[in-house]
Amino acid sequence: MDKRKRVHPVLRARARDLRREQTPMERRLWWHLQRKQLGGLRFRQQHSIGRFIVDFYCPAHRLVVEIDGDSHDEQREYDEGRTAWLEAQGYEVIRVTNNEVRDHLDSVLDAIWPFAFLRTYWLKSGCKSSDQGGLSMREDIRRRVRFVTKVAWIVLAVFLVLIVAISVAAPEGLFGPMWSTFYRIATITAGIALGVAIIGGLYGLISKRRG
Predict the structure, then answer these.
(1) How many domains does the chain have?
(2) The pTM is what?
(3) Which CATH number belongs to the domain containing residue 26 in this structure?
């Protein structure tokens, strides 16, 4: 649990102004985050962290939720630097767009709740957060997915070779019970490995596009 730190009066006043001047999408999302409505998670609105003021913050999970408005493309470099600084301090950042909040609010909420509890499990499992010299949870998951994907491709290649070898050694019609069992196992394993490799590849592409 984060302890409240002394906030500079200027930042405190700015955060107060931002709470009064919410954008329509911030108001829409806050309506569902306030009063522990989302899985009992307690969020703060327009919360100051360091020199920044974040849109929404869940102290129990050190989770920041930011809404990217229409000006995001114009200040992408600033937003990326801001996110990098927050992650370096051990915070996890979820960025969503105005369009996602407006058109796909349920999906946004469905992403925030499990992400918060996954982060807690991830930290309790012994993983180091960014401020402890480790990776952010998102980067750690990407690294693990990349490793599993590589292993899946290797397994797929090995079992494809095995399938070909079995087919050559025991042509159709000459399969005995043992060959048939090996062939089925090899085929099923290759299919599973292919599925894992494809899913891992798609996850890598999607996460790379989302930054």
Answers:
(1) 2
(2) 0.60
(3) 3.40.960.10
Q: What is the dihedral of CA 106, 110, 116, 117, to 10 degrees?
A: 150
Q: Are residues 18 and 118 in the same domain?
A: yes
Structure confidence by residue, pLDDT tens digits, 124-149: 555 555 444 444 556 666 677 777 88
Residues 24 and 81 in one domain: yes
The Cβ of residue 108 has, within 10 Å, a number of other Cβ atoms equal to: 20
Last residue within a domain, chosen from 127, 152, 183 = 127
State pLDDT tens for residues 1-28.
455 566 777 888 888 888 898 999 999 9
Over the stretch 36-64, which tens digit does the pLDDT of each residue have? 888 888 999 999 998 899 999 998 888 89
Length of the chain: 211
Per the rule left: phi > 0, alpha: psi between -120 and 50, beta: everything else, 53 is beta
Pairing of strands 63-68, 92-97: parallel
CB atoms within 10 A of CB 11: 15
